[in-house]
Amino acid sequence: MQQGFRKIRSVHTTDIHMRDPFVYACKKENKYYLFGTTFADGCGDQEPMFEVYIGENLKEWKGPYVAFQPPQGFWGIRHYWAPEVFEINNNYYMFATFKGGIGEHRGTGILVANHPGGPYKPYSEGAVTPKHLECLDGTFYEDNQNQKWLIYCHEWTQEYEGKIKAIRLTSNLKKSFGHEIEILNAAHMKWTRKFRDPRIEKEGYLTDAPFMYKTNNGELLMLWSSYSRDNFGKGGSGGYTVAVARSKSGSIEGEWTHDNSLLLDKNAGHSSLFRSFDDQLYICTHFPDTPHGQERPLFLKVKELNNHLSVIVD
Questions:
Q1: Is the bond preceding 198 in cis, omega lying within 30 degrees of 0?
Q2: Handedness of CA 66, 72, 76, 77 (dihedral sign)
Q3: Three-class SS of residue 171?
Q4: Which helix (H) or strand (E) holds 266?
Q5: What is the pLDDT of residue 252?
Q6: Is residue 157 classed as helix, strand or coil in its secondary structure?
């Protein structure tokens, strides 16, 4: 593990300021690796980076260690967002968002390491999202035919109606190929409301954080986040949310439908799923979403029943 400019400490989950948390549960070591968005645009004289915390019980952690320190000349300049780690062919690959230089769109790049905690090194040939699109929050999925997919968000800042799309990856994960598949359009959902950013004088329907999950009966679910209308559903807060889309065929190609109820609607979002070492399914999310500066990782137990997920309230 690599130490950065911050001191390594023992900390509780509630002490970790982080957006977009992601847990990789390493069964080989019986340890959890917690990644997320921390120094997205650098700080002071420090360049942006990805950090990682290590724990054994989802409460106490040691860190932060450096998961990825960009080498000189790396194409990603800023917006180091939403790292996710997957073990593929005995290596560990980090899928993460980066913004390139002037005139280059934001996109998902892939890094590689021989240990889940890193340090990671550049791997893909720049962004694997389409170069003409402004993208973020790419995630990985391998289907039953061993086809590798990148699922990502096409930004509302470029086209007003944010979308989630999928594209094939080469077997070596170096680049994408083929046609994009549109999974959803956020403007078509019953519960979404427009997101406004006065800094860029734009508004639109936002899409964040796709994450794929295969149910026990073979349905393919996708978690994703946006902003909901006030009082949607039972006691909805009108804030950042987590919704569920599903492909009953179990295929990326769909047809995709959308659950009427939201999985989370309590000012929390950008979620993923993982299993603890005692096989309990958890959702990993940040809470609260606002006010900024207060975000912390949050782990909630989840149960699956009849292909539907629900959060367990203790």
A1: no
A2: positive
A3: coil
A4: none
A5: 96
A6: helix
DSSP class of 286: E
CA atoms within 13 A on the CB side of 97: 27
Q: What angle do CA 87, 242, 283 make, to 5 degrees?
A: 45
Res 254: pLDDT: 87
Q: What does the block give as tokens for 142?
A: 């391998």
Determine the Cα–Cα distance for residues 300 and 279; give it in Å rounded to an integer. 14
According to the model, what pLDDT value does residue 234 have? 63
Domains of the chain: 2-311 (2.115.10.20)
What is the phi/psi pair of residue 13, to 5°? -55, -40
Write down the pLDDT at residue 231. 73
Res 237: pLDDT: 64
| Cβ-defined contacts of 245-248 (< 8 Å, 24+) | 245/183, 245/184, 245/221, 246/219, 246/220, 246/221, 246/222, 246/307, 247/219, 247/220, 247/221, 247/222, 248/219
Q: Which residues contact 140 (CB under 8 A, 6 or more apart)?
A: 84, 86, 88, 93, 95, 148, 149, 150, 151, 169
CA angle in degrees (0–180, nearest 5) for 56-60-66: 85
Which positions of the chain have pLDDT values less than 50? none
Instruction: Give residue-wise pLDDT tens across range 105-150.
Output: 999 999 999 999 999 999 998 999 999 999 999 999 999 999 999 9
Give a three-class secondary structure readout of 3-53.
ECCCCCEEEEHHHCCCEEEEEEEECCCCEEEEEEECCCCCECCECCCEEEE
Instruction: Tell me how far apart the alpha carbons of residues 41 and 28 are, in angstroms, rounded to a whole number.
Output: 33
Tokens of 134: 């402004």
Q: What is the mean pLDDT of the chain?
A: 94
